[in-house]
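Supplementary material to the annual report.
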Amino acid sequence: MPAHDPTDPTLVRARQRLIVALDVPDARAALAAARELDGHVGMLKIGLQLFVAEGPAVVRAIREAHPALEIFLDLKLHDIPNTMRGAIRSARELGVRFLTVHAGSGTDHLRACVEEAQGALDILAVTVLTSQDEAACREAGHTRAPQELVAMRAACARDAGCAGVVCSGQEVARVHEVAPSLFKVVPGIRPAGSAADDQRRVMTPARAITSHATHLVLGRPIMRAEDRPGAADAIVREIAGAL
Ligand code: C5P
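Predicted assembly:
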């Protein structure tokens, strides 16, 4: 059965868990990808490259042309609560599903974000960037290992009422222990046999799902595929098999 069969409930659930990173330079490329992927994935992630280039207009354009595709606005906001509130107020009007903020400033900052979102969008807390290893954490003044920091920040996100966290596949099982009810959004996913690119610690879709990831973020394995819908369908089937 093709993964885009709209009637199979397991495939529908699996598709909702697949997020594609639109790491493209402009709206034209973003809209072309959205056209190809509509009906094959649940959500598109718009990151800093595209948002800085095109602004909120690209979010509105995709929402209008492809209302079934949810938008994950990955801006990783980090500022004083008043400024965070202002940014979130602006984002509320865009019709996005997820917005990321950094978890490093603690529960009160996160609580302000959740409050300002007013349920119009879900706040995801970024725990520790996967580019930060133990040495980088030490250099930044942290006395805890990255895994411990991840667990502490997941607890902050839970206490602040965030909808979920972004964490690596290596940490998702630990995050699930601390915050079982939160969404766990996991990048660095690679189907078995595909190139790791610059990701150091990769995990297959099935393994991430059985480790309690609720959503998977994939960029290059889908965006660089000759057949993007086909690549997405294969991953949806793998997710469905692990649900
Ligand atoms: O192409 P690839 O699948 O590696 O893309 C992964 C996406 O997830 C990129 O947009 C990347 O910026 C993002 N990401 C990540 N690791 C994190 C957080 C976000 O790879 N810890």
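The chain has a mean pLDDT of 93.
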